[in-house]
Amino acid sequence: MKEANVIQYIKDIYSNLTKSEKKIADFILSNHIDAQYMSITSLADECSVADATISRFCKTLGYQSYSAFKLALAKNTDPAASSSNQTSDNTVTIEDSIIEMANKLYSTDISAMKQSLDLINPETITQTVKYFHNAHNVYCFGQGGGGIIAKEAWSRFITATSHFRYIEDSHMQVIASSLCTPNDVILFFSYSGATTDVIDILSKAKERGAIIILVTHYPKCPAASYSNIVLLCGSQENPLNSGSIAVRMAQLFIIDVLFNEFCRMDLIHTSQNRETTSEALARKQL
Length: 286
Prior knowledge:
Elements: H1 6-13, H2 19-30, H3 40-47, H4 51-60, H5 66-75, H6 98-119, H7 122-134, E1 137-142, H8 145-157, E2 164-166, H9 170-178, E3 184-189, H10 196-207, E4 211-216, E5 229-232, H11 245-265, H12 267-282
Helix pairs in contact: 2-3, 3-4, 6-11, 7-11, 8-11, 9-10, 11-12
């Protein structure tokens, strides 16, 4: 594997690359830091090539996937380097005191929520919540870190409604999706929107006519093509920092916005439900 120095290896084999692959190589060599934060579709658009060409380029370099290539790229990058996506000001270093580290993390988390706030489209939020209210079932899905956030969404909404469902196992998610109806909604959390699981699940749901709401960072990710609504969350995630708290903060913020609008849209009913569930939980307290 060419992880030892992926940049050098691209230079070494440059003359043997196809015309399309050279477009990708040129961009990577000039923007190897920014490329770490780009989805496969974003990079393909930037280079004016197809997603499949990016995949072939990665395999030419010896990587089985675009994600594996980005990880190698990140390993080859100086941690202190800055880019338009992630400034070195908030990069935690070994020299930082605990307070300095905490301040940097705080700034990063706040920035993630601010980015998400800036990306909010009120009409899209309203339409999403209408779908929730009209649905027989709202399935909260995701894998890995996205699965954790999906469970958070479910645990929030079940305080106000009984229509939300959470299924953890990806196989069970496929089964549920294959039996969806046009009266069901899939709320899917996937930062990249570019995994085999998300495509398998959403393609089944789309075939069944279900409404699909995707929460992701990349508006042009593969999963977006299956979705009725795409909700964007802020925060850039380095391949070496998968599952970052900042990304989860951004996604939780989106959940909070959706939940509060859901309650405002049917204030009397949701208030009664929230009071009932609060009383039920109160009995658990000492």
